[in-house]
Specification:
The protein is an alpha/beta fold and 384 residues long. The chain folds into 2 domains: 17-260, Type I PLP-dependent aspartate aminotransferase-like (Major domain) (Aspartate Aminotransferase, domain 2), CATH 3.40.640.10; 262-382, Aspartate Aminotransferase, domain 1. The protein contains 14 helices and 13 strands. The strands form 3 sheets. The protein has a 7-stranded mixed beta sheet with strand order 2-10-9-8-5-3-4, with helices on both faces. Strands 1-12-13-11 form a 4-stranded mixed beta sheet. Strands 6-7 form a two-stranded antiparallel ribbon. Helix 1 packs antiparallel against helix 10, helix 2 (33-50) crosses helix 10 and helix 5 (117-126) packs parallel to helix 6.
Amino acid sequence: MDGKPMLMIPGPTPVPEQVLLAMAKHPIGHRSGDFSKVIAEITENLKWLHQTQNDVLCLTVSGTGAMEAGIINFLSPGDRVLVGDNGKFGERWGLISKAFGLNVDLIKTEWGKPLDPEEFRAKLEADKDKQIKAVIITHSETSTGVLNDLETINKYVKAHGEALIIVDAVTSMGALNIPIDEWGLDVVGSGSQKGYMIPPGLGFVSVSKKAWKAYETATLPKFYLDLGKYKKATDKDSSPFTPPVNLMYGLQVALQMMKAEGLENIFARHQRNTAATRAAMKALNLPLFAPDTHASTAITAVIPTTVDAEKIRSTIKKKFDIALAGGQDHLKGKIFRIGHLGFVSERDILAAIGALETTLQELGYEGATPGAGVAAAAAVLAQS
């Protein structure tokens, strides 16, 4: 059926009708009093979502732009940083840091495995002269479906005393409990096309008081991504540059929807959908790429052994118009990824798994009893 696509990828994620309708309104002047009211409401609700009283700044960028801003505003050339690298995005933050002349110390782990917090502890404790200025971590590594132990790593950063913690929460914000103030996270970046349930184009950066103190002496070059400009404007319910007015209309409604659902319910829904998806893959004898103990609530990565991952993706797209994500870099063609992030319901999970089972049968897969995946997922969802 034409015109009924289904996104089951880690981003862009499905967009609610209310959000789409809000975005269809006529734009208004971004310097008008009416739009200042929109910014004020968005700012208040962003702080609610981030569980913080810190500044939460809204930028017209992707998640990568938010993270670049989070790196360059608080550091100076030659500063030593620890960067966790166990996937595509951890690798990216290392490359960005090197591009700006930082002294990058990579803590690497094989893709599909979580970062070892003890490696961070050892490096931080050995830094007697407090040369480490920041620790940069991807919370939910979207390329592999691995969730890194941010809470434990952050405790070691706090024990160091000097270093900032800079967090990629691009696919965990709005899907997992990230109590920024409770944990004392310094810089947290995220992007609109993930848990926020709106199209790509906005990035968000939460900034602590400790990070703002570092900003005062940071000398890396910046202009459009100078967060000081964003803070000054946001404090006046404005923006330093022209914002995407209609996208912010959508954000306003999406945040209203999230508040109506409630944080605990949002997190529980993501956990349910993750558990149901993983149970289905196990019932279908499709190996999971990330361990259960460190499973992302954004995506589930699957590494099939007897059927081609790309044939699964192309067939389910052609037959059912369902988009699944593929692997990246050396995992291209080896894994497929099922997104269950943002505006994804239990009905979507069951529909996707049913379509996957039909696809597997069409491809001649004989590794599981037909219906086993849907039954396993249904059993998980029935317990909720």
